[in-house]
Model the fold of this input.
Amino acid sequence: MTAATTINPQIEESWKEALLDEFSKPYFSALKTFLTEEKNAGKIIYPKGSEIFNAFTLTPFEKVKVVILGQDPYHNPGQAHGLSFSVVDGVKPPPSLQNIYKEIYSDLGLPIPSSGNLTKWAAQGVFLLNAILTVQANQPASHQKKGWEEFTDAVIKNLSDKRTGLVFILWGNYAKQKIALIDTSKHHILTSAHPSPFSAANGFFGCRHFSKTNALLEKSGISPIDWKL
Done:
């Protein structure tokens, strides 16, 4: 039995096929060991295990149109569910997401929703990927440099290599570092400041990334995203 079949992550089949080589690499085995040890030590990990790969489940490999890259999951109880910037129904949208909604209203005139659940976007082909897919409760960035970055870099590289005409939306300096993984002759890249309250006024507000994304998709003959929630 190979390492790849031993690990066998519960990830959507098209992504499992695209990323098969990653699951047999030493870093992925070490990552799984780390997560198992954290759980066995009684530490609370977000999102719950069945939702770690939620972005992949909701947006299969061939369905991706747009990539919105976050950093790591929300670390407070009841927030994270495997989609960058998104929270479950019934949870107040966090400040960065509130600013995203403000920009959508400014850009497209769409009403600001009360829900922070972005599943509707994911179902249309918006791949809401965090660079780090897990976090310890109340400990932001606690799962950095444990292997997730190597895995999600491979995700971005696979999309760049095997797909054409995607729109990569990169907010903030951390996300912009991923430009090196993307073939800019095949794909579109939109960058701005991060929507965090600490930086949104420095270039996120007014970026009009939502209308620009749809214009780029339509120019490529791809159906646009309905950003209304």
